[in-house]
Amino acid sequence: MKKVLLPLLIVIVVAGAWWNYSPRSSFTTSGVAPEASSAPMKSPEEIVAGDYEKIAKHLSARNTSGDEWKQINNYSLTPATLVTSTNAKVYFKTAQSNVPDIFSCLKKDFCGMETRGEDDAYFDDQKTPAHILLNRNLLIMKESLRKDGSLKSEVDWDLMKELATSGSDMLSVEALDIIREFDSESMKTDELIKVTQDLKGQAKADALVNLSKKTNSTDKILLASEVSDVFASGDANSVISVLEKLRNMSLGANATRTLVHLCRFKDNEQSHNWPTVKMLANKVNNEFEKMCN
Known about the structure:
With 293 residues, the chain is an all-alpha fold. It has helices at 2-21, 44-56, 61-65, 67-72, 79-82, 88-109, 129-147, 157-164, 169-182, 189-196, 201-211, 217-233, 236-245, 253-258, 274-284, 288-291.
């Protein structure tokens, strides 16, 4: 009897294992086939292509029909690689023409991407494909100006100032850097710093690092004062982002003087940030902790 039962048990166990682990993608456990999706999922490439088709509708046909448009959208090419001294004027004119058109449709309805389908990419109203493309055009403008200084007179500086105060971190940082590098006479350092006061986190840090490229000692003092303000009253994300980049700002002894404002993180409701703040501040000055005793 035992000899009969043993093979029978083995068959039952094997059959159960097969039922649990074998693929049954076409049927549910009730034996009913699931409903097929009404529309095929789009690939990431198709989603991006669709986004840029929407943006292109707002741009000059002349700008979207030439090879420059293809190259501007070829993100495998950095602006420094794409723009040369021989083609700088062509790319500058195309980018300069694209910028106000994209900015206008962004303000209107995110260039037609305010309402997204379920199969579209995640929607971030601070980093839509239109924001990314506009920023790319600003980068190409900046590189063109570096390769051909005569183009400076053709920049719409009023538009650059509007972009700098647009409320978009990405666009503000880039527009501010163009103004700093090529139109510093119309906006002094203190005015540029004032524009950065609405920025937070990494955008704040990036903007201050860009402004630190000014070598005038008075500019460095103004910048150190802004860093002190961030450390004294800024949110933790902005403080840590700026602190991570502080050594890149070449503030000299002024950098050490800013650190005392970080002691507030030691014994307050934000003390959970203290280990990170302490570690980063010690990289700037290894005697930082003594300032907080």
